[in-house]
Amino acid sequence: MVTQFFSLAPLTQTSILSFIILLLGLAGVLWMLWVKPMPKVAKSASLGILLVMIGGFSWVFYQSHNAEIALTDTELKLDIPFYKVHLARSELLVEQARIIDLKQEADLAPSFKTNGIGMPGFQLGWFNLKGKGKAFVAVTDKSELVLVLVPTTRGYNLLLSVPEGERFITQLQK
Asked: Which of 43, 61, 101, 142 could cross-link with 19 by S-S, CB 3.0 to 4.6 Å?
């Protein structure tokens, strides 16, 4: 089998707006710290931390457009900003993989973020699910026929926004 590549669903208007508001808010705090009289060391440290945060969120925003899922004969590779997940195909419970609708299966919705980014319209990283269990989540679109759930033998699920969900599941089950 030739390596097959799948992309994440493009960011929705909500997620793009969330990123813009976040970055503008951080830029506003940066400006306020710049003009505020404070000790030089404290100002430098604060400005440095904010610049790293602005750079990090800008990078995630940019890279989320290039995130990809690679499926080979032996493994599934997720190359997503800040995270690289590699799972052997034997670790995937492919017969249980399916497209889900979070309106119908609310217990599979990500709830508490344990390590990641959670904003309106964009969730990336490790989350606890409302029902129970945990999942690695890369959700850019929650609409029907896009959200794919792939259980693993490692005790967590993959919850991914894949526009070609049906084709992804078919290739996964081969």
From this structure: 61
Distance CA 106, CA 59 (A): 31
Q: Where are the alpha helices (DSSP H) in the chain?
A: 13-35, 40-63, 165-172
For 137-150, how does the pLDDT look when each residue is reduced to its tens digit (9 = 90+)? Answer: 999 887 766 899 99
Give the SS3 label for residue 166: helix
Residue holding tokens 């669903």? Answer: 9
Query: Dihedrals φ, ψ of 104, to 5°?
Result: -90, -30
Indicate the burial class of 44 (C-beta count within 10 angstroms; 0-12, 13-18, 19 or more).
exposed
Spatial separation of the C-alpha atoms in residues 70 and 7, rounded to whole Å: 9
Q: What is the pTM of this model?
A: 0.87
